[in-house]
Amino acid sequence: MKHPRALPTQILWLSIVTGLLGGTAVTLYVLLTEGLSRLLFLGDPFSTTRTLPVWYLYAVPTLAILLVNRLIALDPTVREYGVAEIAKAVEEGRYTITLRGLLLKILASILSLASGFNVGNEGPSAAIGAMIAHRLNALFALPRRFVTLLVSVGASAGIAAVFVSPVTGISFALENIAGEFLRDRLGPIILAAALAFGVSYQFLHPLVFHYSVGRSFDYDYMLAALLFIPVLLGALGLYFGIKRYLLALLDGAVHRWIGSRWRNLLFSLIGGATIGTLLLTAPIAAFSGHGMVAALINGEIHISLKLIVLVVLLRIVGTAVSIYANAVGGLFLPLMSLGALVGYGYAEALQQTAGFVLHPYAFAAIGAGVFMGVVMRLPLTAVVLALEITYDYNIIVPTAVIVVITGYLMDRLVHIEKLDADSVNTFLTSEQGSPR
Question: Please, what is the end-to-end C-alpha distance for the chain in angstroms?
Fold first, then answer.
């Protein structure tokens, strides 16, 4: 019997070094972003925006995005989000981002996030980890066949660090890096496993670590989750509709009235004005959404149904404009925040109208995972995220079932393209027949 060749010892050591350096670098990146945000807004922006002058709230995001676009003019690769370009580089056996480009990307991302734009930080984090791994590979002159593996290792380390979730980082990297084979077959596997669990749980006894929590399973949550699917379809349809309509409208107006020469300047001003308005009217609707998700899934805040509808609409508009204005970051957290809001509002409405005894924070967690998983086509990551955040079967199992069913239905209604990186170019190309 022929045994597969073992990986060289250098790969193990490089993985250790990549993990340590990647974790350190991403931690510094996140802390610098948080520090700059507090500096720009003279404290916690969710508190200080109520006391700052109106002109100041508009000036901060406008000046920040103008500077970001200046950085993009110096190096166009800065605008690319990171995850998709890494996946493509791995698929083609190369990695092209330069150290200068990475540093400019990080600076542009920090400015975008800190000034309130609706983007996430997973793309630059993946790029940080991948660049570290790529540099280490070049330093130790390993064979070319290991480049793909090490870039995947680096991207996984960056994602795990920024999410502070090791298994989520692994699954995210696998679904983005491993190619169509894995993504096309995960949905049926997840759905069948979750439903089989639902049946066997009624009659059999699982192997349980008794010091854990969340192993009990309430079938009311599964019923409520199935009723949640039409609500999610409506919310996702609203997201795609507003996003596509807004992007096409803005792009058409610019090309008709202004031309492409002043495009970045104009959309920087539009982006700054949009985020300034969000900071002025509803600060919770600005920024990446990380704090909002944490507060909703932990029951730390109560939001009325009317306010939820308003914030969802504002965040959809803010996300679309942020991307179009060239804010540098990802969509993972903004999408999670939208799903968390929709899930929280759904559970509140269900309790008030149908008498279901449900915890809104539980459906905030389900909605966060499902919304992200459907739009970005990452069903496994959605399930793993629910697992690592909650360790609760009443959230994990419904997430597994509805992320697959909702994703299948949405893909039939709206051809979902992965929106984790780049996708303004892809988006406009498919929508209008020509790149912007």
Answer: 56
Q: Is the pLDDT of residue 278 over 80?
A: yes
* Mean per-residue pLDDT, 366-390: 87
pLDDT band at 84 (very low <50, low <70, confident <90, very high): low
**Is it the case that residue 435 has pLDDT exceeding 50?**
no
CATH number of the domain at 9-180, please? 1.10.3080.10
- Please list, in sequence order, all residues whose beta carbon lies within 8 angstroms of the beta carbon of residue 75, skipping any fewer than 6 positions away: 98, 100, 101, 104
Number of other CB atoms surrounding residue 108 within 10 Å: 27
Could you give the C-alpha distances from 200 to 66, 135, 189, 196, 217, in angstroms and in order? 57, 49, 16, 6, 11
Per-residue DSSP letters for 250-293?
HHHHHHHHT-STTHHHHHHHHHHHHHHHHHHH-GGGSS-SHHHH
Alpha helices of 178-218 — where are they, by DSSP H? 180-200
Q: Looking at the DSSP assignment, which residues form a beta bridge with residue 120?
A: 330
Instruction: State the pTM of this model.
Output: 0.82
Q: Are 100 and 75 in contact (CB under 8 A)?
A: yes
Listed by start position, the domains of the chain span 9-180, 181-207+215-432
Domain covering 181-207+215-432 assigned CATH 3.40.50.980 in the classification:
no
Which of 58, 400, 151 lies closest to 66 in space, CA to CA? 58
204 half-sphere exposure, CB direction, 13 A CA radius: 9
Q: Is 214 helix (H, G, I), strand (E, B) or coil?
A: coil
